[in-house]
Amino acid sequence: MEKTYAGQAISTNEQGYLTDLNQWNRDIGTEIAKEEDIEMTDRHWEVIEYLQDQYRKEVPLSVRKVGKSNVVSIKEFYQLFPKGPLKISSRIAGIPKPVSCI
Q: Per the confidence metrics, is the pTM higher than 0.85?
């Protein structure tokens, strides 16, 4: 499946998650965030960069693990991505939906 973000055709799965992180850039992340009604701030990007780093290191992600990362507390994580912190932030980050997300 393909979607167009920031003028580029991007490969996604049926749930809207990018299938190739190499296609991701901040413009694409910003457009995905707009679909989720999120206005990105520096704090959002810090979390996104952390998630991408963990994904590249093949570290399984969970809300608890992110909350213990010293990047963001669980409370702030929910404030930044209120509709589902890990699920939505992963989509914006261009990484697959974590197994821990329903």
A: yes
